[in-house]
Amino acid sequence: MPARKYTEEQRERFFEVMDRGGTVRAAAAAAGVHPDAGYRWVRQAGMAHDRPAPRAYSQQDKDAFFRLLAERGNVSAVARKLGFVRVTCYKWANQAGIFTGKNVDAKREEFARLRASGLTRARAAAQVGVDARSALDWDRGVRVFSGGRVYPDGRVVRYRREQILAAVKAPRTTYVQGERVDLARVEQVIHPRFLSLLERERLRDLHRTGMSLRAIAAQMGRPPSTISRELARNTTSARGYMPHAAHRSSVVRRSRPKSPKLVANPALRTYVEARLGPRSGRRSKSATGWSKTSQTTWRCA
Predict the structure, then answer these.
(1) Which of 102, 240, 242, 243 has the fewest CB atoms found within 10 Å of its own CB?
(2) What 3-state class would DSSP assign to 292?
(3) Distances from the Cα of 189 to the Cα of 172, 186, 243, angstroms
(4) Cα angle vertex 165, ends 205, 34, to 5°?
(5) Residue whose C-alpha is closest to residue 255's, from 199, 182, 201
């Protein structure tokens, strides 16, 4: 079966959502393309990064989870309290034969029995503990599944993509090359000397027109070196400069504290200590091209 062909507009829409921090599947849904095509485009653009290593839990962590679960009886609440991954906690509970989910089918059968006995819809819903919308669906024989509804006559209605995306809460974190970053840090304005997200978007638009770096700098009121450095440092994929990805990367780079170079590089530290030894006085030019004029002052020979 030949591969489906997509338009350049769909591809642009896909990468626009990806650049804004969306997942491959969310970007594919927004662009109306198959997720497999989205994953292929990401690989071709060189944007695929290794995922961070999964969190390791000790036996003490599991014991603490089961102790708190015995008290509260809610896996999600316990996972949130302990700061554990919710899916992992559900896996532990299921492996131990503990199922805390609600039996919807049993509730639906009880609701139907109460309605048959003459109870009003509102009273039957209150008695089994369901909301009014679910009670109305049960009365009509409607079954709900993820992404749509099935009616008694066999009709299947799927929700529009916009409805599904609107129902999803906006994430509060994003990822930069596998590192989780709080969006509050990404959205925070630090100082006017840093490029803002709006400036990065404008830079992308001007650069796509073929304008020279100096002309872009003049348009944006920035030094040409700032524009040149921004494009050289933050163009990380075959798709070219992507403003949102560049903005997130800049936030990660400026995070503090950072390890000093002499601490991170033992060889450099050894070299500096040797060159700043107890001997003083003028030293002739060495193989490194540097000469010593005092204990702490160096100049290029």
Answers:
(1) 102
(2) strand
(3) 17, 8, 16
(4) 75
(5) 182
The DSSP line for 171-182 is: PSEEEETTEEEE
The three-state secondary structure class of 186 is: helix
For 198-241, how does the pLDDT look when each residue is reduced to its tens digit (9 = 90+)? 888 889 899 988 999 999 999 999 999 999 999 998 887 788 88
- Give the DSSP letter string of 236-285: -STT---HHHHHHHHHHHT-S----HHHH-HHHHHHHHHHTSS--S----
Q: Is 69 left (phi over 0), alpha (psi -120 to 50) or beta?
A: alpha
CA dihedral 70, 72, 78, 80 (to 10 degrees): 180
Q: Map tokens 């066999």 to a residue.
A: 154
| pLDDT tens, residue by residue, 232-271 | 988 877 888 888 888 877 777 766 667 788 888 889 999 9
What's the one-letter identity of residue 196? S
Residue 140, C-beta contacts closer than 8 angstroms, at least 6 positions apart = 151, 152
What span, in angstroms and rounded, lies between the C-alpha atoms of 185 and 187? 6
